[in-house]
């Protein structure tokens, strides 16, 4: 019966094409000011601290302040147990930067030529309860070589959601600590 209905829809031109997903977005309201969250996202060590995948091992470099800035992240794909890549380094190149509002980057590596061209980022919007944080992963612009390999997305949406949870825990704990100290100073 279902096959007959599908055949009829196809003949009548009513078949919807399957939508190809090339971007994940997850949103969470975090009880912390946008400036505090953004500061952590600009810090290379902050990326390591909130990573839920376990791939980010350490980072070298200064806090980023503009598009074009970069830092190095030491990676270990072994954490995901999916591809035998072992340890490697990527350079995180900031592609978009709007203070306290938007940060986006693409990881690059001499071992991946041509450049993969996938992007990660965060958008921040102040709310009455703190900051609405949108985390996204976009692989819509990846090079055809990588698209044909069928390995994207390299992370699942659940990893973005988990990282937002770690981000919330980290910055909300810091905000609570400041409030606790403030009560003793007044």
From TrEMBL:
SUPFAM superfamilies according to UniProt: Bet v1-like
Name assigned to this protein: Polyketide cyclase/dehydrase
Organism: Streptomyces turgidiscabies (strain Car8)
């Amino acid at each position: 019966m279902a096959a007959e209905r599908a055949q009829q829809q196809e003949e009548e031109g009513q078949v919807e094409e399957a939508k190809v997903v090339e971007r994940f977005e997850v949103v969470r309201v975090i009880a912390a000011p946008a400036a505090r969250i953004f500061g952590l996202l600009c810090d290379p060590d902050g990326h390591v601290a909130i990573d839920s995948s376990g791939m980010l091992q350490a980072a070298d470099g200064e806090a980023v302040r503009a598009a074009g800035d970069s830092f190095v992240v030491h990676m270990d794909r072994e954490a995901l147990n999916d591809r035998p890549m072992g340890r490697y380094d990527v350079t995180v190149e900031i592609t978009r930067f709007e203070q306290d509002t938007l940060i986006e980057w693409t990881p690059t590596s001499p071992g991946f030529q041509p450049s993969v061209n996938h992007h990660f980022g965060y958008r921040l919007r102040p709310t009455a309860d703190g900051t609405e944080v949108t985390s996204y992963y976009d692989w819509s612009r990846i090079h055809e070589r990588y698209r044909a390999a069928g390995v994207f997305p390299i992370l699942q949406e659940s990893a973005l959601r988990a990282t937002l949870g770690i981000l919330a825990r980290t910055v909300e704990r810091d905000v609570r600590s400041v409030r606790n100290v403030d009560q003793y100073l007044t």
